[in-house]
Amino acid sequence: MVRAAVLPAVGAPLEITDIDLPDPGPGQVRIRLAAAGVCHSDLSLSDGTMRVPVPAVLGHEGAGTVLAVGEGVTHVSPGAEVVLNWAPSCGSCHACSLGEVWLCANALNGAADVYAHRAADGSDLHPGLNVAAFAEETVVSAACVLPLPDGIPLTDAALLGCAVLTGYGAVHHSARVRQGETVAVYGVGGVGLAALQGARIAGASRIVAVDVSPEKEELARAAGATDYVLASDTTAREIRALTGRQGVDVAIECVGRATTIRAAWDSTRRGGRTTVVGIGGKDQQVTFNALELFHWGRTLTGCVYGNSDPAKDLPVLADHVRAGRLDLGALVTERIALDGIPAAFENMLAGKGGRALVTF
């Protein structure tokens, strides 16, 4: 039996309970988790903002060690250290044919599978966003398993599976920040901290961090922020004042709220780029008038998983980690056990801290 955090129904509290995992079948891998990050997407799954079949074991940002492999699995073997990829590309849909693997139409098909059962009553369990990382062990499709490059601490490597791929990717793949440009990052959580580091790595000349919490300023500056602005009705005006009344070249929104998306847009210079990373609900309506769209000439774009190809980007990120340019540990503000996940959800709702990391 394996201990896991189960979401019994949308809106219900998580239950820390025992589950029964099967042996890996053909094309599957069993993994002992070393760590799993608590991401805002997990909170969005628990409250119904994002929909997946339930009951489910949540957790999609993880790393661990291979325990066993099923028939046909050749790219990893028992004992290998790996990172979980919650959105594996199928390689055959229209998006994949265009090379846009982050938009794969079939990436989340595995979330509908039954992958385990409750130990108490044998009831079916689904694997959250494919990988069910909020558990001591998990069984996943081999497509969800990426070998961990050498020289990366296994526990901190969990952050590569979502926060870093998303935040770094938003800067380098979606917004395509260039040397000397100015950047504003809205939301200093795990993804926002990764975006700040990504902007520093890209050579941004000025990096403005925006958050509702004054306590996050030290975190933001350590990640690369040159300026810190408390979110308010005048945020965009303050950012424009910091940039010669022009606005930043790029704004990265990591919150997913209409007010912050609008503020990010308003703080971007004429002709600049605004990238929305945060996942908001359908009730979060953002409005623009036709004249401003013409006049400002800005680009507004969504960003899924950092527009990343995990198989290609993981070695690049590993190079940054080994060279000291990317500090994974700096994203983590709390290390917890499985039963600490509900409190981590509450902290996210309250805007506290960076990334909470479940360690096993």
Topology:
Layout (H helix, E strand, L loop, with lengths): L1 E6 L7 E6 L7 E11 L1 H7 L9 E2 L3 E9 L11 E4 L9 H4 L18 E3 L5 E2 L11 E5 L3 E3 L6 H4 L5 H12 L7 E5 L3 H13 L3 E6 L5 H7 L3 E4 L4 H8 L5 E6 L4 H9 L1 E9 L13 H7 L2 E4 L7 H13 L9 E5 L4 H9 L5 E5 L1
Parallel strand pairs: 11-12, 11-14, 12-13, 14-15, 15-16, 17-18
Antiparallel strand pairs: 1-2, 1-4, 2-7, 3-5, 3-9, 3-18, 5-6, 6-10, 7-8
Helix pairs in contact: 4-5
Which structural class best describes the helix and strand composition? alpha/beta
Q: What's the multimeric state?
A: single chain
Low-confidence stretches: none
In sequence order, what are the helices and strands, one letter per element? EEEHEEEHEEEEHHEHEHEHEHEHEHEHE
End-to-end Cα distance: 15 Å
Determine the fraction of residues in helical runs and give it as a percent range.
25-40%
Any key phrases for this structure?
360 residues, alpha/beta, seven-stranded mixed β-sheet, six-stranded parallel β-sheet, 18 strands, 26% helix
Question: Can you walk through the features of this model?
Answer:
The chain has helices at residues 40-46, 94-97, 154-157, 163-174, 190-202, 217-223, 235-242, 258-266, 290-296, 310-322, 341-349; strands spanning 2-7, 15-20, 28-38, 56-57, 61-69, 81-84, 116-118, 124-125, 137-141, 145-147, 182-186, 206-211, 227-230, 248-253, 268-276, 299-302, 332-336, 355-359. By secondary structure, it is an alpha/beta fold. Helix 8 links the parallel strand 14 and strand 15. The radius of gyration is 20 Å and the shape is globular.
